[in-house]
Design a protein that fits this description.
With 395 residues, this protein is an alpha/beta fold. It folds into 2 domains: 14-197 and 377-393, Glycogen Phosphorylase B (Rossmann fold, 3-Layer(aba) Sandwich), CATH 3.40.50.2000; 214-375, Rossmann fold, CATH 3.40.50. Helix content is 39%, strand content 18%. The protein has helices at 44-55, 72-76, 96-108, 118-131, 150-163, 175-183, 228-240, 256-269, 284-288, 306-313, 326-329, 344-355, 361-375, 378-393, and strands at 14-18, 21-25, 31-37, 61-67, 84-86, 112-115, 135-139, 169-172, 191-193, 214-219, 245-250, 275-279, 293-296, 318-321, 336-339. A 7-stranded parallel β-sheet has the order 5-4-3-6-7-8-9, sandwiched between helices. A 6-stranded parallel β-sheet has the order 12-11-10-13-14-15, sandwiched between helices. α5 links the parallel β7 (135-139) and β8. The longest helix is centred in the last third of the chain and has 16 residues, at 378-393. The two termini are 13 Å apart. 48% of the residues are buried.
Length: 395
Amino acid sequence: MPINTVISTPTASATLETPAGAITVPPLATAKVLHVINGEHYAGAERVQDLLAERLPEFGFYPEFACVKLARFDEMRHWRQARLQRVPMASRFDLRAARKVAEMVRCGGHQIVHAHTVRTGLVAAVASRLTGVPLVYHAHSPASRDTTHPWRNRFNSIVERLSLRRAAHIIAVSEAMADHMIRRGFDRERITVVRNGVPAVGPLPDRSPPSGTWTLGTAALFRPRKGMEILLQAVAMLLQQGVVVRLRAVGGFESPAYETEIASCVRRLGLQEHICWTGFRRDVTAELLKMDLFVLPSVFGEGLPMVVLEAMAAGVPIVATRVPGVPEAVRDNRDGLLANPGDPADLARALTRIIHGEASWASLRASAVARHAQQFSDRTMAAGVAEVYRAVLGR
Protein backbone atom coordinates (compact mmCIF):
# COMPACT_ATOMS: atom_id res chain seq x y z
CA MET A 1 0.00 0.00 0.00
CA PRO A 2 1.60 3.32 -0.99
CA ILE A 3 1.62 6.20 1.42
CA ASN A 4 -1.66 8.08 1.14
CA THR A 5 -4.24 9.96 3.13
CA VAL A 6 -7.36 7.99 3.99
CA ILE A 7 -10.68 9.81 3.99
CA SER A 8 -13.31 7.09 3.73
CA THR A 9 -13.77 3.37 3.18
CA PRO A 10 -14.66 1.88 -0.19
CA THR A 11 -16.80 -1.07 0.87
CA ALA A 12 -19.54 -1.76 3.42
CA SER A 13 -23.22 -2.49 3.83
CA ALA A 14 -24.64 0.65 5.47
CA THR A 15 -24.15 4.37 4.97
CA LEU A 16 -23.42 7.29 7.29
CA GLU A 17 -23.98 10.81 6.06
CA THR A 18 -21.28 13.19 7.28
CA PRO A 19 -20.29 16.73 6.27
CA ALA A 20 -17.39 15.20 4.33
CA GLY A 21 -19.77 12.98 2.39
CA ALA A 22 -21.12 9.45 2.66
CA ILE A 23 -19.05 6.95 4.63
CA THR A 24 -20.10 3.33 4.20
CA VAL A 25 -19.92 0.98 7.18
CA PRO A 26 -20.74 -2.67 7.93
CA PRO A 27 -23.66 -3.24 10.32
CA LEU A 28 -21.77 -5.20 13.00
CA ALA A 29 -18.24 -5.52 14.34
CA THR A 30 -16.61 -8.54 12.73
CA ALA A 31 -13.00 -8.57 13.93
CA LYS A 32 -11.32 -7.90 17.26
CA VAL A 33 -8.35 -5.56 17.67
CA LEU A 34 -6.22 -5.30 20.81
CA HIS A 35 -4.95 -1.76 21.43
CA VAL A 36 -1.83 -1.81 23.59
CA ILE A 37 -1.58 1.56 25.33
CA ASN A 38 0.32 3.31 28.10
CA GLY A 39 -2.66 4.72 30.01
CA GLU A 40 -0.60 6.89 32.35
CA HIS A 41 -2.18 10.14 31.12
CA TYR A 42 -5.29 11.22 29.25
CA ALA A 43 -3.92 13.55 26.57
CA GLY A 44 -4.15 13.72 22.77
CA ALA A 45 -3.10 10.16 21.94
CA GLU A 46 -5.39 8.75 24.61
CA ARG A 47 -8.26 10.82 23.22
CA VAL A 48 -7.62 9.16 19.83
CA GLN A 49 -7.71 5.72 21.47
CA ASP A 50 -10.94 6.54 23.30
CA LEU A 51 -12.67 7.80 20.16
CA LEU A 52 -11.51 4.82 18.10
CA ALA A 53 -12.96 2.48 20.73
CA GLU A 54 -16.31 4.18 20.26
CA ARG A 55 -16.32 4.49 16.47
CA LEU A 56 -14.49 1.44 15.10
CA PRO A 57 -17.38 -1.01 15.68
CA GLU A 58 -19.36 0.99 13.12
CA PHE A 59 -16.73 -0.02 10.57
CA GLY A 60 -16.46 -3.69 11.41
CA PHE A 61 -13.83 -3.81 14.18
CA TYR A 62 -14.25 -4.33 17.90
CA PRO A 63 -11.41 -2.82 19.98
CA GLU A 64 -10.20 -3.87 23.42
CA PHE A 65 -7.38 -2.41 25.53
CA ALA A 66 -4.26 -3.78 27.19
CA CYS A 67 -2.89 -1.05 29.47
CA VAL A 68 0.73 -1.18 30.70
CA LYS A 69 0.74 1.93 32.94
CA LEU A 70 -2.87 2.24 34.06
CA ALA A 71 -3.68 5.55 35.68
CA ARG A 72 -5.64 8.38 34.05
CA PHE A 73 -6.97 6.56 31.00
CA ASP A 74 -9.34 4.18 32.73
CA GLU A 75 -10.51 6.93 35.05
CA MET A 76 -11.16 9.51 32.33
CA ARG A 77 -12.12 7.63 29.17
CA HIS A 78 -15.59 8.40 27.84
CA TRP A 79 -16.31 5.13 26.03
CA ARG A 80 -16.34 2.44 28.71
CA GLN A 81 -17.90 -0.40 26.70
CA ALA A 82 -14.49 -1.45 25.39
CA ARG A 83 -12.91 -4.05 27.65
CA LEU A 84 -9.70 -2.96 29.39
CA GLN A 85 -7.18 -5.31 30.97
CA ARG A 86 -4.15 -4.37 33.04
CA VAL A 87 -0.76 -5.61 31.90
CA PRO A 88 1.56 -3.72 34.27
CA MET A 89 5.24 -3.35 33.42
CA ALA A 90 7.76 -3.21 36.26
CA SER A 91 10.24 -1.43 33.97
CA ARG A 92 10.62 -0.25 30.38
CA PHE A 93 12.02 -3.65 29.37
CA ASP A 94 9.71 -5.87 31.41
CA LEU A 95 8.83 -8.20 28.55
CA ARG A 96 6.73 -10.41 30.79
CA ALA A 97 4.00 -8.00 29.74
CA ALA A 98 4.51 -9.09 26.13
CA ARG A 99 3.81 -12.70 27.04
CA LYS A 100 0.65 -11.63 28.85
CA VAL A 101 -0.45 -9.63 25.82
CA ALA A 102 0.24 -12.64 23.60
CA GLU A 103 -1.92 -14.78 25.87
CA MET A 104 -4.69 -12.18 25.66
CA VAL A 105 -4.48 -12.25 21.86
CA ARG A 106 -4.70 -16.04 21.72
CA CYS A 107 -7.55 -16.30 24.22
CA GLY A 108 -9.43 -13.28 22.91
CA GLY A 109 -9.23 -14.13 19.22
CA HIS A 110 -7.79 -10.74 18.27
CA GLN A 111 -6.79 -10.42 14.63
CA ILE A 112 -4.65 -7.26 14.96
CA VAL A 113 -2.42 -5.83 17.67
CA HIS A 114 -2.37 -2.02 17.56
CA ALA A 115 0.30 -0.10 19.53
CA HIS A 116 0.44 3.65 20.15
CA THR A 117 3.75 4.48 21.90
CA VAL A 118 7.38 3.43 21.90
CA ARG A 119 6.91 1.41 25.09
CA THR A 120 3.79 -0.37 23.87
CA GLY A 121 5.32 -0.80 20.43
CA LEU A 122 8.02 -2.97 21.98
CA VAL A 123 5.48 -5.04 23.94
CA ALA A 124 3.16 -5.40 20.95
CA ALA A 125 6.03 -6.35 18.60
CA VAL A 126 7.02 -9.26 20.83
CA ALA A 127 3.39 -10.33 21.25
CA SER A 128 2.90 -10.14 17.48
CA ARG A 129 5.89 -12.38 16.89
CA LEU A 130 4.75 -14.90 19.50
CA THR A 131 1.24 -15.16 18.06
CA GLY A 132 1.68 -14.42 14.37
CA VAL A 133 -0.99 -11.70 14.61
CA PRO A 134 -0.05 -8.59 12.57
CA LEU A 135 1.10 -5.41 14.32
CA VAL A 136 -0.18 -1.94 13.40
CA TYR A 137 1.65 1.04 14.91
CA HIS A 138 0.09 4.49 15.38
CA ALA A 139 2.72 7.26 15.12
CA HIS A 140 1.24 10.14 17.12
CA SER A 141 4.39 12.24 17.55
CA PRO A 142 8.08 11.94 16.63
CA ALA A 143 9.90 9.75 19.15
CA SER A 144 13.20 11.44 18.25
CA ARG A 145 11.79 14.88 19.22
CA ASP A 146 9.43 14.08 22.06
CA THR A 147 11.33 15.54 25.03
CA THR A 148 14.00 18.08 25.90
CA HIS A 149 16.42 15.25 26.77
CA PRO A 150 18.49 14.30 23.68
CA TRP A 151 19.67 11.00 25.16
CA ARG A 152 16.09 9.95 25.95
CA ASN A 153 14.93 10.90 22.45
CA ARG A 154 17.74 8.91 20.87
CA PHE A 155 17.00 5.90 23.06
CA ASN A 156 13.28 6.00 22.24
CA SER A 157 14.06 6.38 18.55
CA ILE A 158 16.28 3.27 18.57
CA VAL A 159 13.68 1.21 20.46
CA GLU A 160 10.96 2.33 18.06
CA ARG A 161 13.04 1.41 15.01
CA LEU A 162 13.84 -2.06 16.37
CA SER A 163 10.25 -2.73 17.45
CA LEU A 164 8.72 -1.81 14.11
CA ARG A 165 10.99 -3.83 11.82
CA ARG A 166 8.23 -6.43 11.43
CA ALA A 167 5.21 -4.13 11.76
CA ALA A 168 2.57 -4.82 9.13
CA HIS A 169 1.68 -1.14 8.82
CA ILE A 170 2.24 2.29 10.34
CA ILE A 171 -0.52 4.87 10.72
CA ALA A 172 0.79 8.45 10.72
CA VAL A 173 -1.51 11.18 12.06
CA SER A 174 -0.29 13.78 9.54
CA GLU A 175 1.72 14.12 6.36
CA ALA A 176 4.52 15.67 8.44
CA MET A 177 4.52 12.61 10.70
CA ALA A 178 4.64 10.29 7.69
CA ASP A 179 7.61 12.22 6.26
CA HIS A 180 9.35 11.93 9.62
CA MET A 181 8.92 8.15 9.67
CA ILE A 182 10.16 7.86 6.08
CA ARG A 183 13.25 9.93 6.92
CA ARG A 184 13.91 7.52 9.77
CA GLY A 185 14.08 4.66 7.29
CA PHE A 186 10.61 3.13 7.39
CA ASP A 187 9.24 1.88 4.07
CA ARG A 188 6.96 4.31 2.30
CA GLU A 189 4.58 1.54 1.25
CA ARG A 190 4.02 0.57 4.90
CA ILE A 191 2.77 4.04 5.92
CA THR A 192 -0.72 5.48 5.60
CA VAL A 193 -1.79 8.92 6.78
CA VAL A 194 -5.00 8.88 8.82
CA ARG A 195 -5.49 12.33 10.25
CA ASN A 196 -6.83 12.71 13.77
CA GLY A 197 -10.46 13.64 14.19
CA VAL A 198 -12.88 14.74 16.90
CA PRO A 199 -16.68 14.84 17.15
CA ALA A 200 -18.69 17.83 16.04
CA VAL A 201 -19.91 19.99 18.91
CA GLY A 202 -23.41 20.40 17.47
CA PRO A 203 -25.21 23.71 17.10
CA LEU A 204 -22.74 26.32 18.29
CA PRO A 205 -23.90 29.29 20.36
CA ASP A 206 -23.89 32.65 18.65
CA ARG A 207 -20.75 34.48 19.73
CA SER A 208 -19.01 37.74 19.07
CA PRO A 209 -15.52 38.84 20.02
CA PRO A 210 -15.36 40.50 23.45
CA SER A 211 -15.36 44.27 23.79
CA GLY A 212 -13.36 44.28 27.01
CA THR A 213 -11.12 41.62 28.52
CA TRP A 214 -10.08 38.81 26.18
CA THR A 215 -9.84 35.31 27.61
CA LEU A 216 -6.92 33.47 26.06
CA GLY A 217 -6.99 29.74 26.61
CA THR A 218 -4.70 26.79 26.27
CA ALA A 219 -5.15 23.09 27.05
CA ALA A 220 -2.51 20.39 27.27
CA LEU A 221 -0.63 17.95 29.37
CA PHE A 222 1.86 20.64 30.30
CA ARG A 223 5.47 19.66 29.67
CA PRO A 224 8.49 21.48 28.23
CA ARG A 225 7.73 20.89 24.54
CA LYS A 226 4.29 22.50 24.89
CA GLY A 227 5.93 25.94 25.20
CA MET A 228 4.06 27.23 28.24
CA GLU A 229 6.94 29.59 29.06
CA ILE A 230 6.59 31.15 25.60
CA LEU A 231 2.87 31.76 26.13
CA LEU A 232 3.47 33.30 29.55
CA GLN A 233 6.02 35.71 28.08
CA ALA A 234 3.59 36.63 25.28
CA VAL A 235 0.83 37.34 27.83
CA ALA A 236 3.22 39.57 29.80
CA MET A 237 4.03 41.48 26.60
CA LEU A 238 0.35 42.05 25.84
CA LEU A 239 -0.29 43.36 29.34
CA GLN A 240 2.68 45.71 29.05
CA GLN A 241 1.15 47.04 25.82
CA GLY A 242 -2.13 47.75 27.61
CA VAL A 243 -4.00 44.84 26.01
CA VAL A 244 -6.38 43.49 28.66
CA VAL A 245 -6.19 39.68 28.66
CA ARG A 246 -6.55 36.77 31.01
CA LEU A 247 -5.20 33.27 30.50
CA ARG A 248 -7.20 30.13 31.20
CA ALA A 249 -4.90 27.09 31.38
CA VAL A 250 -6.65 23.70 31.21
CA GLY A 251 -4.75 20.52 32.04
CA GLY A 252 -2.32 18.94 34.43
CA PHE A 253 1.45 18.89 34.56
CA GLU A 254 3.62 15.99 33.45
CA SER A 255 5.76 16.28 36.57
CA PRO A 256 5.88 18.24 39.86
CA ALA A 257 9.30 19.58 38.84
CA TYR A 258 7.90 21.22 35.69
CA GLU A 259 4.92 22.60 37.62
CA THR A 260 7.36 24.24 40.03
CA GLU A 261 9.34 25.66 37.12
CA ILE A 262 6.22 27.20 35.55
CA ALA A 263 5.05 28.61 38.89
CA SER A 264 8.42 30.34 39.23
CA CYS A 265 8.05 31.79 35.73
CA VAL A 266 4.58 33.12 36.59
CA ARG A 267 5.92 34.88 39.68
CA ARG A 268 8.89 36.31 37.81
CA LEU A 269 6.59 37.81 35.17
CA GLY A 270 4.06 39.02 37.74
CA LEU A 271 1.17 37.11 36.19
CA GLN A 272 -0.36 35.55 39.32
CA GLU A 273 -3.57 37.60 39.05
CA HIS A 274 -3.93 37.08 35.30
CA ILE A 275 -4.06 33.27 35.08
CA CYS A 276 -6.72 30.71 35.99
CA TRP A 277 -5.32 27.19 36.37
CA THR A 278 -8.23 24.75 36.05
CA GLY A 279 -6.32 21.48 36.31
CA PHE A 280 -7.46 18.47 34.29
CA ARG A 281 -11.01 18.69 32.96
CA ARG A 282 -13.02 15.87 31.45
CA ASP A 283 -15.22 18.14 29.32
CA VAL A 284 -12.69 20.00 27.17
CA THR A 285 -15.39 21.45 24.93
CA ALA A 286 -17.04 23.19 27.87
CA GLU A 287 -13.69 24.76 28.72
CA LEU A 288 -13.05 25.81 25.13
CA LEU A 289 -16.37 27.64 25.00
CA LYS A 290 -15.16 29.83 27.86
CA MET A 291 -12.22 31.03 25.73
CA ASP A 292 -12.16 33.86 23.18
CA LEU A 293 -8.94 32.64 21.57
CA PHE A 294 -7.25 29.26 21.81
CA VAL A 295 -3.45 29.30 21.89
CA LEU A 296 -1.11 26.37 21.21
CA PRO A 297 2.49 27.57 21.77
CA SER A 298 4.27 24.22 21.12
CA VAL A 299 7.97 24.46 20.35
CA PHE A 300 8.37 20.96 18.81
CA GLY A 301 7.16 17.39 18.96
CA GLU A 302 3.60 17.54 17.58
CA GLY A 303 1.96 15.12 15.18
CA LEU A 304 -1.52 16.59 14.73
CA PRO A 305 -2.75 18.03 18.05
CA MET A 306 -6.22 16.85 19.02
CA VAL A 307 -6.91 19.97 21.06
CA VAL A 308 -6.48 22.16 17.97
CA LEU A 309 -9.15 20.11 16.22
CA GLU A 310 -11.40 20.38 19.27
CA ALA A 311 -10.99 24.17 19.26
CA MET A 312 -11.90 24.24 15.56
CA ALA A 313 -15.02 22.15 16.22
CA ALA A 314 -16.00 24.45 19.10
CA GLY A 315 -15.62 27.57 16.97
CA VAL A 316 -12.79 29.09 19.00
CA PRO A 317 -10.32 31.00 16.78
CA ILE A 318 -6.80 29.61 17.04
CA VAL A 319 -3.33 31.05 17.31
CA ALA A 320 -0.74 28.27 17.10
CA THR A 321 2.90 27.79 16.23
CA ARG A 322 4.26 26.44 12.95
CA VAL A 323 5.43 23.10 14.29
CA PRO A 324 5.07 20.09 11.97
CA GLY A 325 1.49 18.89 11.67
CA VAL A 326 -0.26 22.04 12.86
CA PRO A 327 -0.33 23.81 9.45
CA GLU A 328 -2.12 20.77 8.00
CA ALA A 329 -5.11 21.64 10.18
CA VAL A 330 -4.81 25.40 10.65
CA ARG A 331 -4.25 27.33 7.43
CA ASP A 332 -2.58 30.64 8.26
CA ASN A 333 -4.92 33.63 7.92
CA ARG A 334 -7.83 31.33 7.01
CA ASP A 335 -8.62 29.01 9.95
CA GLY A 336 -6.37 30.77 12.47
CA LEU A 337 -3.02 32.51 12.73
CA LEU A 338 0.39 30.83 12.93
CA ALA A 339 3.44 32.16 14.76
CA ASN A 340 7.07 31.10 14.86
CA PRO A 341 7.77 28.48 17.54
CA GLY A 342 9.85 29.63 20.48
CA ASP A 343 9.19 33.32 19.69
CA PRO A 344 7.00 35.04 22.33
CA ALA A 345 7.07 38.37 20.46
CA ASP A 346 5.72 36.79 17.27
CA LEU A 347 3.08 34.94 19.28
CA ALA A 348 2.04 38.21 20.93
CA ARG A 349 1.86 39.91 17.51
CA ALA A 350 -0.45 37.21 16.17
CA LEU A 351 -2.73 37.51 19.19
CA THR A 352 -2.79 41.29 18.87
CA ARG A 353 -3.83 41.08 15.20
CA ILE A 354 -7.05 39.33 16.19
CA ILE A 355 -7.68 41.35 19.35
CA HIS A 356 -7.29 44.64 17.43
CA GLY A 357 -9.44 43.41 14.56
CA GLU A 358 -6.72 43.30 11.91
CA ALA A 359 -7.66 39.63 11.39
CA SER A 360 -11.39 38.90 11.53
CA TRP A 361 -12.34 36.85 14.59
CA ALA A 362 -15.67 35.89 13.00
CA SER A 363 -14.15 34.82 9.67
CA LEU A 364 -11.48 32.69 11.32
CA ARG A 365 -14.14 31.06 13.47
CA ALA A 366 -16.44 30.22 10.57
CA SER A 367 -13.63 28.83 8.43
CA ALA A 368 -12.29 26.64 11.25
CA VAL A 369 -15.72 25.14 11.98
CA ALA A 370 -16.26 24.33 8.30
CA ARG A 371 -12.78 22.82 7.90
CA HIS A 372 -13.26 20.56 10.91
CA ALA A 373 -16.55 19.27 9.55
CA GLN A 374 -15.03 18.53 6.14
CA GLN A 375 -11.68 17.02 7.16
CA PHE A 376 -11.33 16.14 10.84
CA SER A 377 -14.35 14.27 12.19
CA ASP A 378 -14.02 11.27 14.50
CA ARG A 379 -15.88 9.05 12.02
CA THR A 380 -13.51 10.00 9.23
CA MET A 381 -10.59 9.03 11.48
CA ALA A 382 -12.18 5.68 12.38
CA ALA A 383 -12.98 4.98 8.72
CA GLY A 384 -9.35 5.52 7.79
CA VAL A 385 -8.05 3.24 10.55
CA ALA A 386 -10.55 0.56 9.54
CA GLU A 387 -9.35 0.76 5.94
CA VAL A 388 -5.78 0.12 7.13
CA TYR A 389 -6.98 -2.87 9.14
CA ARG A 390 -8.75 -4.33 6.11
CA ALA A 391 -5.65 -3.90 3.98
CA VAL A 392 -3.49 -5.61 6.62
CA LEU A 393 -5.93 -8.52 6.86
CA GLY A 394 -6.22 -8.78 3.08
CA ARG A 395 -9.94 -8.10 2.99
